[in-house]
Design brief:
With 741 residues, the chain is of the alpha/beta class. It is built from 25 helices and 13 strands. It has helices spanning 2-8, 16-21, 29-34, 37-43, 99-114, 119-155, 159-207, 211-217, 224-263, 265-285, 289-312, 314-320, 323-375, 381-398, 400-429, 507-514, 538-551, 566-571, 580-584, 601-606, 613-622, 627-631, 641-644, 647-661, 677-689; strands at 10-11, 60-63, 69-72, 440-445, 465-475, 482-492, 497-500, 521-529, 552-555, 665-669, 693-697, 709-713, 725-729. The chain is elongated and about 115 Å long. The structure holds adenosine-5'-triphosphate. Adenosine-5'-triphosphate (ATP) binds at residues 217, 476-479, 483, 501, 503-509.
């Protein structure tokens, strides 16, 4: 009957329930099936935060989708305890774990949520989880006494008592199981909430101050995407499970130590010696696992990233016929992951030899120690069973490191990766140093900019100056190679500037500096924009740059096509998708407040009115792209736009964005390179007519027709500090007041 009951159950904690289901009198065949040595061993070895699938050698299956969910198939019990699952995760650059640094990083990553806006809800849920955990421990203790009386009745051949105890047992299951299920449900929900908050927190900082760009362009850390997706998920789940396991262990320790000590004090001493020795040996045997786990995570992420790049560049690779190269490269990456995993498995195997032996021995150790007392009649048979159960519980608590060594090593790797990420996000959000050796980027109000005529007497209309560059020396961020020396120029409204120069001379880099992406070098760049106060600090700069992006637009050579409909392509980046109304229609609400970003009312009032559908269609027609509406079923269709539109079409779409946003100034980096001359002339005509001032980079002669002045940058000479640029008017009729020097 017990067997039938147990087979019906799918429980979520290998430890608590198993311990009561299977108190093990080793000499009873019938119960040996239920409480085989393996089951006993397993019961005391919580696996609360392991990933992967356990080999089902002994009638316990592990549900990979629902972590920690274990189903018992007691009838199929075999004699081998489960090996700990293989773990993947990462750490160190070949160094061993450093507990102090690990703890500092753990705290830095874990703490912000519990002091965030969501702290009340978070703390309440955490309290509920701890209360339920306490409840489950209480139930475990109760089961230990039930088990004792149950086996006493059996040993005494007392049928009435046995039937009564059986009923108690069944009642205990009915009352106790909901606690175990609810505890796990509450823990998982809290973990998901925590993860959601952290995901939003990390993403915000990752996208702030262009940190994502710095990380990528300077190769600061590997695979930030994987840290946000996998590591955060793993961190929140594991941190919570691990804290609960520790709490559970502490409570268990107190509850069961009493029982065990009461039975036979020397048994307690045996337990201490056994568990401390076991911990020391497993730390010694598993010391390589942290590093191997760290590397494993990195190598798998590199392999996955290689596959993503293959997908993203499918057409170029297909044109080149580069399949063989790609295959070789991808296999190399996989091979590297494979070799590391092989090392990981070998280290795990060595550790497993020890931990399995450790688990086996405890099945007979407590019974062996108390058996003489039983033979001399000092204790009843049920007490042996109770001592085995209590011994297993306490040993499980004392042996957390032995049983969880691989999970702990994987967790350490996750902590280290997230801590490293956190440090970078932190340093990026701090104010830039006030070093004089940095380009300063300043935004000023347009009407604060008086401009003198060349003769110095006539004050022009204040709003004419758009950009002022003073003594700009630009260097590459990492190698600090000088690209442009001592550049000074001024751009006024409608004085379109063409930037030319040989390949690699630094034309795009100049735009990078203007956009604030690069700041290595010295000098000052000042923009004059409507409706903006002077901003010099990083936070002000961030806020100002949002407004700045509406006034100054940047068009790269290969336009970025986002994931979404055709209308979203046109509205990007000036108008973000408004998801709140759609979510409000859902019953019940399925999202958390911190996962919805909305503009505050102040910003919303500043937000320019979103163009209507007619305006979107018109602008497409203006850039001669009207035909794609019928080809792709209208504005609401979604496609992989960078694949289905030609580069020239994408460039025209980018001009459509520009015409909708109507900035004051646009920086064009070879933005018409894929277009025929007629289309190029047409687009320049459109933006000129829209009153937009532009600075273009380009090599084509035809571009001279649309610009007033030309800035020529020549290759920098490292042996001299002389300026490597010159400015000349292109057309005699245009104002000449570009260069201040
Ligand atoms: N992230 C980077 N880190 C270091 N150096 C870089 C980086 N990006 C570009 N460079 C270097 O800076 C120099 C100038 O590059 P830039 O892209 O500005 O050239 P360009 O004049 O626009 O060339 P082209 O006409 O070929 O587009 C090049 O030598 C390039 O190798």
């Amino acid at each position: 009957m017990l067997k039938m009951q147990a087979q019906c159950l799918s429980i979520t904690d290998s430890r608590s329930l198993c311990n009561h289901l299977v108190p093990v009198p080793l000499n009873l065949r019938f119960f040996c099936k239920l409480s085989s040595p393996a089951s006993v061993a397993t019961s005391s070895q919580p696996k609360p935060f392991c990933k992967g699938r356990w080999p089902n050698k002994f009638g316990i299956s592990y549900n990979q989708r629902k972590r920690n969910s274990i189903s018992l198939h007691l009838s199929a019990a075999a004699a081998v305890p489960p090996p700990a699952p293989p773990t993947t995760e990462l750490d160190d650059e070949g160094k061993g774990p450093n507990p102090k640094r690990l703890w500092r990083r753990f705290w830095k990553v874990a703490a912000p949520y519990w002091w965030s806006d969501d702290r009340v809800q978070a703390r309440l849920q955490l309290a509920a989880v701890f209360a339920l955990t306490l409840g489950t421990t209480g139930i475990s203790v109760g089961f230990s006494f039930l088990g004792r009386d149950f086996y006493n009745a059996l040993a005494n051949k007392d049928a009435d008592q046995f039937a009564k105890q059986l009923l108690y047992y069944l009642g205990g299951f009915a009352g106790g199981i909901p606690f175990f299920v609810l505890r796990d449900y509450a823990r998982e929900t809290l973990s998901l909430r925590w993860r959601s908050w952290m995901t939003s927190y990390y993403m915000e900082r990752y996208l702030k101050n262009r940190t994502f760009y710095k990380i990528q362009s300077q190769s600061i850390i590997d695979n930030p995407d994987q840290r946000i997706v996998d590591d955060l998920s793993s961190f929140t789940g594991t941190a919570l499970s691990f804290s609960l396991t520790l709490f559970n262990a502490a409570v268990d320790l107190i509850s069961f130590s009493n029982i065990l000590y009461g039975i036979y004090p020397p048994l307690f001493v045996v337990l201490l010696v056994y568990s401390i020795g076991g911990t020391a040996i497993s730390v010694f045997l598993g010391k390589d696992l942290v590093t191997l786990n760290f590397l494993q995570e990195k190598k798998e992420a590199d392999f996955r990233y290689g596959l993503v790049r293959l997908r993203e560049n499918a057409e170029s690779i297909a044109f080149y016929g580069g399949e063989e190269n790609e295959l070789q490269l991808l296999l190399q990456r996989f091979n590297s992951a494979f070799e590391n995993l092989t090392q990981l498995l070998i280290s795990s195997r060595n550790l497993e030899f020890f931990t399995n032996g450790y688990r086996y021995l405890i099945q007979i150790l407590p019974a062996a120690v108390v058996a003489p007392m039983y033979f001399s009649g000092k204790i009843e048979f049920g007490v042996i069973n109770q001592s085995v159960s209590a011994f297993n519980h306490i040993l499980g608590d004392f042996s957390l490191i032995v049983y969880q060594f691989q999970a702990i090593s994987a967790f350490s790797a996750v902590i280290d990766r997230l801590g490293e990420f956190e440090d970078i996000l932190d340093s990026s959000s701090k104010s830039p140093s006030e070093s004089s050796e940095e380009i300063s980027l300043v935004y000023s109000r347009m009407n604060d900019s008086p401009t003198l005529e060349p003769n110095g007497t006539v004050l022009k209309k204040k709003s004419q100056k758009l950009l002022d560059i003073e003594n700009l020396t630009l260097q590459t961020p990492t190698s600090k190679a000088t690209l442009i020396t001592d550049l000074s120029l001024q751009v006024n409204c409608h004085e379109h500037l063409l930037v030319t120069g040989p390949s690699g001379s630094g034309k795009t880099s100049l735009l990078r500096a203007l956009a604030g992406l690069w700041n290595t070098g010295r000098g000052k760049i000042q923009f004059y924009i409507d409706d903006v106060g002077v901003a010099q600090s990083s936070s002000e700069l961030e806020e100002t740059s949002m407004k700045f992006s509406k006034e100054v637009f940047f068009l790269p050579q290969r336009p970025y096509m986002n994931l979404g409909t055709l209308s979203r392509q046109l509205l990007y980046p000036s108008w973000a998708e408004d998801v709140a109304p759609a979510l409000n229609n859902l019953e019940p609400p399925v999202t958390l407040p911190f996962l919805v970003r909305g503009l505050d009312s102040k910003d919303a009032s500043r937000k320019p009115k979103q163009p209507t559908t007619d305006e979107l269609i018109k602008v497409l027609e203006d850039v001669r792209l009207g035909y794609i509406l019928s080809r792709f079923n209208g504005l609401d269709s979604t496609h992989e736009w960078s694949s289905v539109l030609s580069l020239g079409e994408q460039q025209r779409l980018a001009f459509a964005r520009l015409l909708l946003s109507k900035p004051k100034l646009v920086l064009l980096d070879e933005s018409t390179s894929a277009l025929d001359e007629a289309n190029e002339a047409h687009l320049y005509g459109l933006i000129r007519a829209a009153g937009i001032t532009y600075i273009s980079i380009g090599h084509r002669r035809t571009l001279y027709d649309y610009h007033c002045n030309c800035l020529h940058i020549s290759a920098a000479d490292s042996n001299t500090c002389r300026p490597n640029w010159s400015i000349n008017p292109i057309n005699e009729d245009t104002p000449v007041n570009l260069s201040k020097s």
